[in-house]
Design goal:
The chain is mainly β. The protein contains 1 helix and 33 strands. Strand 14 and strand 15 form a beta hairpin.
Length: 345
């Protein structure tokens, strides 16, 4: 079915940017509604302390029911759905606050400069009032002619706004940088004053967030898929099973080593947490030395977040998708909550 394959390609790109959102008293995480065929995405709001499901949104409206990346403020959660609608959901109850029907497939929202910036297909950017859903501006972002199947997400950082398209082009949209394009952006991470970008060939580059000037270029592992930084060090993790550390100010190599295939990487309090099959490996960020592991059943399911001494990990443990909360201080699990069936998410 052609529409299924088109949506599958769109979802494959957008799902890379879905994040577990951790708030003061909740955790927003993506799961699946059942064990059926197709895409049956759901967004779950869990109580941060207990893991209890407060509400869920999405489900099996059709075999092609897909949710894009979400963002949230104190009042609402914003998420696009494959029915062409952007939803604002009450953060406390999950009840719809407003809907914006565009009819252009999945859209990807983010909060920027007091408004909701929304990327939609074909590559286009809207500014939307987060309180009412009213369209404030249709920016168009017609920087050059895009293929009709190209998709993009928006990446906010302070006053800057970037657009990352599915062909790997990273564009600065606020017209602050004289040179506005970075090609072949396979992975990225923001520091306080620099943007770090990895290319498929393993080159890692640092750009000044003030004017976009290139600060340094260094060689990391080939086929880098994930970057992390604490402002002093940049860690680059490849799909092929390698990780390396670079000095964030100079790009000088600090250490490198082989690791098993890793689905996600986060830094928390000086340590690296690598989501791998049946475990989360713990490395000392300064040396790369393995200092522990957290045993978890199943395969990585695309959600790994650290916050205030807690690690939140989603696992596909057939027949369920399960969210785990792990206390890093106590070294034990806080709670375990099923967030759907083992489907295509």
């Amino acid at each position: 079915m052609p529409e299924f394959h088109a949506l599958a390609r769109e979802a494959e790109f957008l799902h890379r940017f879905r994040r577990t959102l951790v708030g003061p008293d909740d955790v927003l995480v993506f799961g699946s509604s059942d064990h059926g065929p197709g895409f049956n995405d759901m967004l779950h709001a869990l109580d941060r302390a207990t893991g209890e499901v407060r509400w869920a949104f999405g489900g099996r409206e059709s075999p092609l029911d897909v949710l894009g990346p979400a963002c949230a403020d104190d009042a609402a959660v914003y998420v696009g759905r494959s029915n062409g609608v952007l939803y604002a959901l009450d953060r406390r109850t999950g009840a719809p606050r407003w809907q914006l029907r565009r009819g252009r497939g999945l859209c990807a929202p983010c909060l920027h400069d007091g408004a909701l910036a929304v990327s939609e297909a074909p590559v286009n950017t809207l500014r939307v009032d987060p309180a009412t859903g009213a369209v404030l501006a249709d920016a168009g972002v017609a920087l050059h002619r895009y293929p009709p199947d190209l998709r993009a997400v928006l990446l906010p950082h302070a006053r800057l706004l970037f657009q990352l398209s599915s062909d790997g082009t990273l564009t600065e949209l606020t017209r602050t940088w004289p040179a506005r394009w970075i090609a072949d952006a396979a992975a990225h991470v923001f520091g306080a004053a620099a943007l770090f970008v990895a290319a498929p060939d393993g080159a890692v580059r640092s750009f000044d967030l003030g004017d976009g000037g290139e600060l340094w270029r260094s060689e990391g592992p080939a086929d880098v898929k994930r970057l992390a930084t604490d402002g002093r060090t940049v860690w680059a993790c490849s799909a092929a099973g390698a990780i390396g550390a670079l000095d964030a100010l100079t790009g000088d190599p600090l250490w490198s080593r082989r690791i098993p295939p890793t689905a996600a990487l986060v830094e928390h309090a000086g340590r690296l947490y690598l989501d791998q099959h049946a475990r989360v490996a713990v490395l000392e960020g300064a040396t790369g030395e393995t200092v522990g592991e957290i045993a978890l059943d199943g395969a990585p399911c695309g959600a790994l977040a650290g916050s205030d001494g807690m690690l939140f990990v989603s696992r596909a443990a057939e027949p369920e998708i399960v969210m785990h909360a792990v206390s890093l201080a106590r070294g034990g699990r806080g709670w375990r909550t099923a967030i759907g069936g083992y489907g295509l998410t």
